[in-house]
Write a structure and sequence with these properties.
Length: 408
């Protein structure tokens, strides 16, 4: 009989957002008349902008015409999108990235989950705590995390991001091989200054680590001093892979498009006394396991960079940032501790003293039909907090504030 990969049995029972969805479904069944408002999973609510839907329609038409039909596309993404990424996301920031360093995909979640395959099984992984659970769970699946006890995986190096260090991770005592950083941060909504990020790039260069930098939320940065890309920092192209997404930038959570930047200068030990480039290995991996993001979706993503697309998506982002500001002000007035929500669509809220994050989640769900994400679900240092997203509709955000005020 076939035997399971027992790393999968080591996983916590449910993926965080699946567990929350399960609890919400049970609640809805028990109380079908209550209208549930979700400020839980970071899913967008505004529709795709007209520039994107027009490009999608055009591409769908092309696919129905013999002269324009396309079958398998390049596994790395079409040149038109890779070039647009370079032209619009990097060149204006003075960052020199080449199109063949861009790998288009169907989501940053898959990319950040899959990229760890390129590293030796005994590599030491460091994550900030609290953390987007995909970084940890994907390493558990590979058998890199060790055993779980006291709320932590014993082979993972945790970098607490807490009030006491102003949510800026300190360098670890143990040298990791791989460091996951996500800024603007999911879940805390906090950012890293240019000098703090430079510190991490320098650390990685000195210690021979690779930084897996998730910048899915960079479009929410409002403060001009905060870097949008890790490659704005000196030396980053030798130590970092960057992950970007159209999900939160242009409402593609249901359409699916993202990209990873794997610089050709990023080389690691080949275990035989030489070096090997991650760009070539990621290319090899993608060609083997992935057939490319759909043509029509890549045309839709390209349209995000048109003048109309930029203006329209900017308006949407500003709407979400307005929600974040409303939520932030209201939470402050309630006297709760609050972080984030200024350069990010997430707000990190301290729960009332007498409770913990899952209990507060349950209370909001059952008493207010309001969904948040319990901080403890993101790691031990998330205990005592919940995450609220600004991705709701303006009406739901206002209604959520009223419901929260009744509870706090
Ligand atoms: C979140 O809520 O943290 C994100 O939406 C999840 C994701 O992007 O996969």
């Amino acid at each position: 009989m076939a035997t399971v990969n027992d790393n999968f049995l080591a996983l916590r029972s449910n993926y965080l957002f699946a567990e929350i969805a399960r609890k919400v479904a049970v609640f809805k069944e028990s109380d079908p008349d209550r209208r549930v408002i979700s400020l839980g999973i970071g899913d967008v609510t505004r529709p795709l902008v007209p520039a994107v839907t027009a490009a999608l329609r055009r591409a769908v038409e092309e696919m129905g015409e013999a002269a324009h039909f396309r079958g398998y596309g390049p596994e790395q993404g079409y040149a038109f999108l890779r070039e647009a990424v370079v032209e619009h996301d990097y060149r204006p920031r003075g960052v020199d990235v080449a199109p063949d360093e861009i790998f288009v995909s169907d989501g940053a979640k898959c990319d950040v989950g899959n990229f760890q395959e390129l590293f030796a099984k005994d590599s030491i992984v460091a994550v900030t705590d609290p953390v987007y659970p995909v970084y940890v769970d994907s390493n558990v699946m590979t058998g890199r995390a060790g055993t779980y006890s006291g709320g932590r995986w014993q082979r993972i190096v945790y970098l607490p991001c807490v009030r006491e260090n102003d949510f800026v991770p300190d360098f670890p005592g143990t040298r990791p091989d791989i460091i996951y950083l996500c800024y603007p941060n999911n879940p805390t909504g906090t950012v890293l200054s240019r000098s703090a990020l430079q510190g991490w790039v320098d650390y990685a260069g000195r210690e021979g680590c690779v930084i897996l930098y998730d910048s899915a939320y960079e479009a929410y940065i409002q403060d001009p001093g905060i870097p949008h890309s890790i490659y704005e920092l000196d030396g980053a192209a030798e130590v970092a892979v960057e992950f970007r997404s159209f999900s939160k930038t242009a409402g593609f959570t249901g359409l699916r498009c993202a990209y990873a930047v794997v610089p050709k200068g990023l080389r690691i030990d080949d275990g035989r006394g030489g070096k090997v480039g991650l760009n070539g290995l990621w290319n090899r991996r993608q060609c083997t396991k992935y057939n490319g993001c759909p043509y029509i979706v890549q045309r839709a993503a390209e349209a995000v960079y048109s003048a109309e697309g930029k203006r329209q998506t900017r308006e949407v982002i500003e709407g979400y940032l307005h929600n974040a500001a409303l939520l932030g002000d209201a939470v402050k007035k309630m006297g709760l501790e609050i972080y984030g929500g200024v350069n990010a669509p997430y707000i990190w809220v301290g729960v009332p003293k007498e409770t913990d994050s899952w209990s507060f989640f349950d209370r909001l769900l059952h008493s207010a039909a309001l969904v948040c994400t319990p901080g403890a679900g993101f790691g031990a240092s998330g205990e005592g907090y919940v995450r609220l997203t600004a991705f709701g509709t303006p009406e739901d955000t206002r209604e959520a504030i009223v419901r929260l005020q009744e509870q706090c």
